[in-house]
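A student in our group prepared the protein record below, which I am reviewing. This is what I was given:
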Amino acid sequence: MPSRQNLLGLWLLLTGVCVLLGLAALIWLESTVPADVGPRALLWGLCLAPAALALLAGVWLEKRLFRPLRQFQILLARLVASPDARHDYPLEGWLQGLQPDLDHIREGWRRDRARVQDAHDQGALTASRIRQQLEALLQVLHTPLLICDRHQRLLLFNPAAQALFHDHPALGLGKPLSLLLPHPSLSEALQHLPDEGTPQQLLLPGEQHWLRCQIRALGGDQGGALISLDDTTRALEHDQRWRRTLAQLLPRLRGHCGSLNSATDALLQVQDNLDLQQRLERAIHQESQALAGQVEQLTRLVEAHQLSQSMLEETWSNDLCHALRAQLKPQRIELTPVGIPAWMRVDGPGLLALLQQLIRQLHNTQNIRHLELEVLLGNRRVYLDLSWRGAPLNEQQLQQWRRLPLFDEPLSPRIEDVLEQHGADLWSLPSEQPDQQPRLRLPLPASARGMQPRVRPPARPEFHDFSIADLPPPGEDLATRPLQQLEMVVFDTETTGLDLRGGDAIISLAGCRIVNGRLLADDSFDQRVNPGRAIPAQSTAIHGLTDADVAQSPPIEIVLPRFRQYVGEGVLVAHNAAFDLLALQLATGTDHPAFGMPVLDTLLLSRALDPSLEGHGLDALAERFQLQFPPGTRHTALGDARVTAELLLMLLPRLASRGIHTLGDALALQRRIEQDASA
């Protein structure tokens, strides 16, 4: 059907022609017919009647036929794009009689889809139970796990891996593993894994972590590998520090032992030289003292090394307090927890022994039998306070207590070893007010969990999709790849204004991913950007962002490489993509930006599918296909990107019905629309 503008133009043209012909006929009749022949009004009416009839016919046809046809077109487009959509408006005009048939077709289609879905749900019940059990297991597993297919695309990652790579934009289903762990040794090991499942070990260096990696081949048609990771950064640092100190001590010990041997041999040979004998004895005494000092230092190193093997674990302060109360009960010492409990990262057994030793010393020196334990949250630290009624401790006492062993055993670690393990120290805080008790403060590493003892994971996390392994290999030509099998990143930008070449810049950049025809709920990129210039008030009125909102945000030079990592090898999608691509291109500062991948534009695709309909803006299309913006998300980069992604998924079946199946087909369709618009 022609567009409304074309029909309106034809109607006005026909009406204008009728008016001109009527006026021409009227002028001719006025010049040829005598004035006394017939009424002049009838003559005027006959001449202008065709124009009036054309005008009335256009209005009547618009109301009875053309507007109902456009409604019918929208209803069909919505039925194909979203068969389960509701609240459709009824047909009007001459098409009103088709309403029962259309309702019957629509309801029949929906019933058939519901029956197919029920059958699918029943058949997949067992698989659903297995999947839920797998998800429950992965939720509580603390070891980071990754599963990739034979093409090294991520099929699964558990919450522990998500926490390990929480700030890495390359973590996502279907993304190449090489973007997340860019180590040639890992890629080589994955290509030569033993088929019988023998694990291989690798140590992978990173920017902030040393990861011990265990790789095991998976059986089945999909191939691939299971990768378990262990952050060994802290253990390696402890080990290197211990080895470094040991490497310094051993040569000194050898030197002192060698000097003692030489001096002893010389002393045995100079029995008749008293002066030389005295000098040798002094040398032996000095070397013996130095050797004793080095042996003491070696002993201290071995004692401290016992704690260096212990990792700091997440510990709930109330659990530590209950264990300490049980240890103090035989000594009839009462410990009362006060304040709000919190999480902290400590070596539980070592800290428990330290607190027990400190309380024992307080009991021995001041006969303290009742103490209070309070946990206070600080900046990246948790302050553990022991308070009592009595005299405060001085620094000399604390210095003596720091050297006390934790246990009555040889080579027992000391209090200062536990303090060093936690990067902490002991502070004595005297009472500043008459009703305040003296305290002994121990600053400890805080936990990222905050003050809640339990964190419930999301009910349905998006961390696995094994159907990705059935997709074509990454090296295949994207132009021949079916649209449903593409990895697509739908993105949007918010800017300081619309004049990008005049200096307006990006202030917000966001994207979401579609993998295997599915929009991933929890996989998104959302970052505000400091544009380095003021945001005009008229722009703030649209997107709501002010200078204060982006003042602490990173510049585009930092954000853009991270977004490029997030895009990976995906195809970009945007609504009115020309504007957003220009913003990215100008931000890169080069005519050859890093974003050279294919781009799909939902605006051009919508115009190609419905050239006769008006309104292809995001708001108009969201209303046409009944897409909802969550409150407060319109004109936000992530909110617009998500709705654009949902719109694209609705356009895909309509493109398929017109023979547009591959990325090359869609790009060719977009080029035709652009050429028609510029012609």
In short: The longest helix spans residues 40-81.
